[in-house]
Design brief:
CATH superfamily of one domain: YerB-like
CATH topology of one domain: YerB-like fold
Order of helices and strands: HEEEEHEHEEEHHEEEEEEEEEEEEEE
CATH class of one domain: Alpha Beta
Distance between the termini: 149 Å
Number of helices: 5
Shape: globular
Oligomer: single chain
Strand content: 25-35%
Radius of gyration: 54 Å
Helix content: 10-25%
Number of strands: 22
Largest sheet: 11 strands, mixed
Amino acid sequence: MVAQPVQPQAPARPQVAPEPRPPVEPRPPKAPAEPKSKAAPRPPAEPKSKPPATGVPNKKHGHRALWISLVTVIVVLALVVGGLYVWSTRSNTDTPTVPQTMSTVPAATPTLPPPPDPIATWPLTGLPMADDASNGPALCIKIENSVQARPQLGLDSADIVIEEVVEGGITRFMGVFQSTIPKQVEPVRSLRPMDTPLAQQFSCALVFSGGQLPFVQAALNSVLPIISQDRGAMWFSRDSGRSAPHNVIGDMATFMATAKAAKLTSPPPAFNYPALGQVSSIVADGAPATRLDLKMSGVESSTWRWDDVHGVWLRYEGTTKATVVGGKQLSATNVVTLSVTLVNTQYRDPAGNPVPETQIVGSGTGTVSYAGMSMPIKWSKASAKKPIVLTDASGNPVTLLPGNTWVELVPKSGSVTIR
């Protein structure tokens, strides 16, 4: 019998003409044929194999291959384009190596309130100045301190008081007024050779009554306005309750008007004060002190005692309270002692005593006392117009407490005892 032909299979890819199959071997005779409804078994199909690349594909299979190639190319292109887009997107979000000032938004920073305006302070005391206060010029007034001159009038209003030794060993004051102007001061007295170089650092009007011609001429040669009773100033009067020459009264309103008419401005700061949040010098380097005994000369001694209740130093003339008219005791926030050289000039007073001069331009040692404490210092004054500079042992500026200050010019022949 002849073998049944194999049904052709649809190729999945373009194929070339099939190779001729080997001849079918004859089979042995079979039993009578079964009915046609039961098909004869087919021999197993040979495994499919990829046709060789040679030959010519048929037309139908070629179209299909072309479409598959086109689809493949499109997919590849889509993947490439998509990858490029993703890469581009990510690169734009990465932090650039070079700052992009036009395309980046700075991080938000907290908005801080502006710092408070600095508080205006009086230059000679460091105390806060009232909003309606007038920061005007200063007045430097010579005030007597003999026994006949006590109690003084208006001295307690001075921002700074400088005590100096004059002829006969008695002392005299120079009161520097600016933040508080009393109605009157008494007794106004005469000029001494160290007064002009002391006053010049305050750029003040220099007020006095009398003085030897060389001392007055030195004041006239300075740039300070001079207000002197002996030169015709009409703003002086005499206290009928006291004897001359210890009774000269000065009218402060007219003195200040004269200083303003001379176009004087506010004086420069006289001392350093600790800034907000800083520790004052005496807290860092001082020692407790409750009493300061000063020997100015053989006939003049004074004492300062610490009043812890009011936080001030109280002044005594010897053992007697030093007061002003009305009974108020003189006091100071700061007491500064400067060890100075005292020399006698060629001039004499009416009693024949040589007139001494304190050499204030120079340098030396001293003490600063406030807040119930005291510390050693160094001082220097480079010229008449320059201020007195206070430093510690290391050369750092010394700070005082805001308030009034007494400066004691203690001769080297005198002494300062701190208890």
